[in-house]
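User: Predict the complex.
Assistant: Input components as received:
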Amino acid sequence: MKFSVIIDAFPYLLGAAVTTIWVSLLGVLLGQVIGVVVCVARQSGGRVADMAGGVYVSFFRGVPLLIQLLLIYYMLPLIGIDVPPLVASIAALGLASGAYVSEIYRGALNAVPHGQSEAALALGFPGSSIWTRILLPQAFRISVPALVNELILLLKASSLISVVGVAELTRTSQTISASNYRPLEIYLAAGLIYLAINGALALFGTLVERRLQQA
Amino acid sequence: MLDLSLLVQYGPALLRGFGVTILCWGAGCLIGMVLGFALMLLRQLPVKPLRWVIRAYIEVIRGTPFLIQLFLLYSGGPAIGLRLEATTAGILGLGIYGSAYFAEIFRAGYQAVPKGQVEAALSLGMSYGAILRRVIVPAMLVSTIPPIVNMMAILTKETVVLSIITVPELMYEMQTMAAETFATFETILGMALFYWLLVEAVSRLGRRLEARVTRFLTHASPQGSSKTATARA
């Protein structure tokens, strides 16, 4: 063990960690949008929408993320969309996350009392605003712990996008340890950075949860 | 689509890869469960430092990506004299990764065993080993089967990550095939469908197992959440 190795590499690792963070955040954001749309479509879009949504959720939860990533990475150029690895990675993370998020929202919606939407209906709310003003805000509040958990899972999963060459934390650690032959120190440092980010996220989640309970 | 002659040509390699996948998965699950159970038991001992160490172990494993753990074990290991072959490192890595999650699953199951049952067994003069074997573990089995099956399905998916450290499992063989035949997209699509089926099969089997293990559960009312295992005598 040589700690000077870690100190030398630390600035690079931190820079790469920033990439990891924003890629994960974009992935989660995309996942939120997809998740809400899929969830609402499955609940109120009829049988076909429900079935299509079901296949989507089953596929993206059943297939390993690494394969999804490669599939998207190689599929997009085939249909004429040439995107950089970074965009393909965010798309893959978002699609995978969307499947989990839609299930999180489905669970949360079940926890919103039936009387809420019935009352809104009786008050003459149109269908769309029942969703945007009554159901989704409550579902969101219920699902905050699960969503923070999802963010942590996605941040860990983002290490896989190193495979398509995105220079995030894992990829950068690989590059550094390949040049200085000190994989033990570098991967330890990378692991600690992941741990620190996830710890901060968990703390943030607890704070938000407490805040929402007060409101 | 997929040229069938390719399947004939690469069939043996793919089959071998699938064997390695199953081996890694099975051995990884086994190590994970045994280690997880041991960690859970050790955590019950009234030794504070030991508890802290186990807690830290669980938090570290659950807070870092599996890929980083694998790299640390496989590439970082030799620096401390731990020279492992890729497959051994993969199995060990899967086991260590799973053990943290299994330990938490078992802990929840352990805590869900009604205290009265353990006290009753104690007052009947049963030894701790006997209580564990005949009271706690059977009751735990019922409440922990769903999360265990879920974890095993997750580990099925994690086996593909082993290809990155060159474990010659299915994903690795398929990538070799893709690289040699340039049928990249078809191969990956086929692989996606295959793993979809595999994970689905693991979950199905798990649900059947769950039905078998919980067949003595009585459901008093739909709302009744008291999940006490009651044998039908």
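The helical segments of chain A are 3-44, 46-62, 65-78, 85-111, 114-122, 127-157, 169-180, 183-214.
Let me know if you want any component modeled separately.
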